[in-house]
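Lecture notes, unit on protein representations.

Consider one protein chain, 449 amino acids long.
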Amino acid sequence: MERRGRVYRRCACRDDAGRQLGQSCPRLASDGKHGVWYYAVDLPSTAGKRKTMRRGGFSTKAAASRALADVTNRAAHGVQVDDRETVATFLTRWLQVKASEAKPTTLRSYRAHVDNVIAPAIGHVPIERLRAEHVEQLLVDAMHGRGPVTVRRIHATLRSALSYGVKTRRLQFNVARNVTPPNGPRPEVQPWSAAELAVFLRHVETDRLGPLFEVIAATGLRRGEALGLRWTDLDLGNRTARIRQTVVDVGGRLQFSTPKTRSSEATVPLTERAVLALLQWRLGQDIDRQAWGAAYEDHGLVFARENGAPLRPEYVTRRFVALSKTAGLRRVRLHDLRHGAASLMLAAGVPMAIVSKMLRHSSIGITVDTYGHLSEDTARTASDAMAAALEQAFETAAAAARDHTATTSAADDVPEVTPHGVRAGQDGGPRGDRTHNPRIKSPLLCQLS
């Protein structure tokens, strides 16, 4: 459909009957400042009928022409035009789409960011008039009472929503893409040391959830991944576990979900201690299954309640905190058992790329950002070890040189040289290996002279 547009001037004057004169007011012809400028343009609609868009209130013809050009340009590129849709309305539509795509926990995070931060700040702004300045101010205001990581996630939520708008031809470009979120320092991970972890694991050996904490500490599994393990995911003979599902709490209801990312769906190795802990747990679970009989909820889960139902993630966290306290250890998060597995691997000299693969990060950049300070300590230790080895090599070489000098001096027993250049006790002329004396002419030179 051909899109036509025009600009015109009209006023709010009325005739004696109270009807608005609009464009027919005689003052428009004689007074260039009378009235305001409008534009009108025909746009395509989903029903295939003509849809005329009229907007006014412009003080000059040039301003109305620029607005018309902007609308016709967007329409020419297939971008939907609706200058009355606000950011809040657009985000509501986006969340409805995400409800069928995103994981429950991710969707909950999106909604929290939209409802608590984004909509209150810029929800009133028409989505087509949203600019980078709005996004920058949003992030600055969000920094009050929040850490840089949280603000970056808020920015990521808005950026994702606007990318959807570009993809669906609702927006021409993503104004949040080139806005840099606050780059505050990432808090350094300070998990338990190997000695502290050993104290904790010894302390929980008699606790019902002890095997669960043993497996998390040994494999670096996330909480939901460990709670979603099924016996069919384990190969205890080869000491491996396949990560296929997680347990998440959505509004108080437990659900089974897929792992966090595609890279999270992988096989992880198990330590011998973890295998022994799993075998111990299975014996106890068999007893529970027999005690509950037909009432046992068999989901095939490894770590479950006495009746087979999934364990609540928050209960596991609370139990971990309580056991840490009774063990007399400094307080860390349950997720820090995962960080502890990474730190122990790095301390043992495992390359960062292997650690990243073990933790199933989507990129090695995430591993470097999280554990970079630990790798620096490991690198410093390796550098000191290299320097010590090099110093030892220098000392060994110097000792060997001293021994060689002493042995050579004793074995050669070089005779004393007389003032005439002849060794004491030497008979006859000079040896053939002596340095040639240029003053002594050769027989050939004697004949030529």
